[in-house]
């Protein structure tokens, strides 16, 4: 007897409502069990030294004691220039990534470029960009161009291409086909269909992605100096190597302040422009 017929034969008052079917319950239980098993296996393979955990609160108090009082005079002489360089790295890297990610994102959108090999190649570029961490990109470019802001700018740019291109390509693929079909029926060429059909629909997403990525890049560029790629990370690395904890505190406060400022700027720009 089919399930629908059997369910219809049961009186309404005797039916029991269940949110999930037995198969769905089994699938959920399997997923939960796999998550728990993965956590247990990970904890067994991570070497945790209990003595260090017990001593951690005391070490934190000792570190904060050495950081206080903060040497604010070091900001003007050692931190300010590095902080400005960090903003330059983040801004130029984001701008370069937008220029490079825009065509790759267009090529990844199947409705704009209905040629599968080109779509796959573009998506491969985007995946390759996202799969390599910005610190690894920075190490690579430091080895090629030497230490400095150029390596950091290129690291930020190449890391951001995958992020911007993927989201922009997905936004183009979700565009409404009506305006594009109207332009196609009127005999408009591909460039006109993109300019007047796809771009007006994808433009808000593009600028939103650009602002969000710049906000992320400000955070990432702050640590690239630890591998010699310029920015305030180099000042932090120098202070750490010399055990100048009062200057480390100045750098950390500056990084925290610039991250908060970037968040506020992006929020206000999004409200006014998008």
Helix and strand topology:
Blueprint: H1 3-9, H2 22-45, H3 50-67, H4 73-108, H5 116-131, H6 134-145, H7 149-173, H8 177-185, H9 190-224, H10 232-241, H11 245-273
Helix pairs in contact: 4-5, 4-7, 4-9, 4-10, 4-11, 5-7, 6-7, 7-9, 8-9, 9-10, 9-11, 10-11
Element order: H for helix, E for strand: HHHHHHHHHHH
Alpha-carbon distance between the two ends: 57 Å
Question: CATH class of the largest domain, please?
Answer: Mainly Alpha
Write out the CATH superfamily name of the largest domain.
Answer: MetI-like
- How can the largest sheet be summarized? none
CATH topology of the largest domain: MetI-like fold
Q: Count up the helices.
A: 11
Question: What is the helical fraction, as a range of percent?
Answer: over 70%
Rg over CA atoms: 26 Å
Q: Strand content of the residues, in percent? A: under 5%
Structure summary, number of beta strands: 0
Low-confidence stretches: none
Quick one: overall form? globular
**What is the count of structural domains?**
2
Structural class: mainly alpha
Query: What CATH architecture of the largest domain would you give?
Result: Orthogonal Bundle
Mean pLDDT: 81
């Amino acid at each position: 007897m089919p399930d629908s017929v059997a369910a219809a034969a049961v009186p309404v008052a005797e039916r029991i409502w269940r949110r999930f079917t037995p198969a769905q319950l089994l699938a959920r239980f399997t997923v939960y069990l796999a998550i728990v098993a993965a956590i247990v296996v990970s904890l067994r393979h991570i070497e945790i030294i209990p003595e260090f955990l017990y001593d951690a609160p005391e070490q934190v108090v000792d570190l904060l004691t050495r950081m206080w009082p903060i040497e604010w005079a070091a900001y003007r002489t050692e931190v300010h220039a590095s902080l400005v360089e960090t903003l330059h790295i983040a801004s130029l890297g984001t701008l370069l990534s937008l220029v490079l990610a825009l065509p790759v994102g267009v090529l990844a959108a199947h409705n704009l470029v209905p040629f599968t090999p080109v779509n796959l190649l573009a998506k491969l570029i985007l995946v390759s960009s996202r799969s390599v961490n910005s610190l690894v990109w920075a190490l690579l470019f430091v080895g090629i161009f030497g230490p400095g802001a150029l390596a950091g700018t290129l690291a930020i740019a190449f890391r951001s291409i995958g992020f911007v291109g993927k989201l922009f390509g997905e936004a183009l693929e979700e565009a409404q086909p009506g305006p594009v079909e109207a332009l196609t029926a009127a005999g408009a060429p591909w460039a006109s269909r993109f300019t007047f059909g796809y771009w007006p629909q994808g433009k808000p997403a593009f600028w939103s992605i650009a602002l969000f990525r710049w906000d992320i890049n400000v955070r990432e560029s702050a640590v690239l100096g630890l591998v010699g790629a310029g920015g305030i990370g180099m000042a932090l690395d120098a202070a750490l190597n010399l055990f100048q904890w009062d200057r480390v505190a100045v750098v950390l406060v500056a990084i925290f302040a610039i991250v908060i400022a970037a968040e506020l700027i992006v929020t206000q720009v999004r409200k006014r422009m998008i």
